[in-house]
């Protein structure tokens, strides 16, 4: 379901695995980044009229409700099948994606799932 040589995945992987205690596994055919809980997936889908539309090159993250609503107003964002009901959002990626924003989305999702010790470690790395 994904191409290991995908340059967008390579870039996303570097950002995600730089977070304290982060690791990668394959979950439901997609790369998933986690500590004790998953904080990001690469690739998702949307179910429309019983048909799944794939978003192969996208980032799925758990966001704050206010941020989620703002992101959903953008064409590049979507509610992923299954996970959307639990607060997750999908963001389509491209070569010209704002990678600072991608890093911020990963950071926010990580903070919601990683636990106090890892978040404190992340904060200690910041100037």
UniProtKB/TrEMBL annotation:
- List the Pfam families hit by this protein, alphabetically: YjbR
InterPro entries given for it?
YjbR-like_sf, YjbR/MT2646/Rv2570-like
Which Gene3D superfamilies does this entry report, sorted A to Z? 3.90.1150.30
What's the protein here called? YjbR protein
């Amino acid at each position: 379901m994904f191409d290991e040589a995908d340059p967008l995945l390579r870039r996303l992987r570097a950002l995600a695995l730089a977070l304290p205690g982060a690791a990668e596994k394959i979950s439901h055919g997609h790369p998933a980044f986690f500590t004790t809980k998953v904080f990001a997936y690469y690739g998702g889908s949307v179910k429309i009229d019983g048909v799944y539309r794939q978003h192969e090159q996208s980032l799925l993250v758990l966001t704050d409700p206010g941020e989620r609503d703002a992101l959903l107003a953008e064409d590049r964002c979507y509610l992923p099948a299954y996970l959307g009901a639990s607060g997750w959002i999908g963001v389509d990626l491209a070569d010209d994606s704002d990678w600072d924003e991608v890093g911020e989305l990963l950071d926010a999702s990580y903070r919601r799932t990683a636990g106090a010790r890892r978040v404190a470690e992340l904060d200690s790395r910041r100037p």
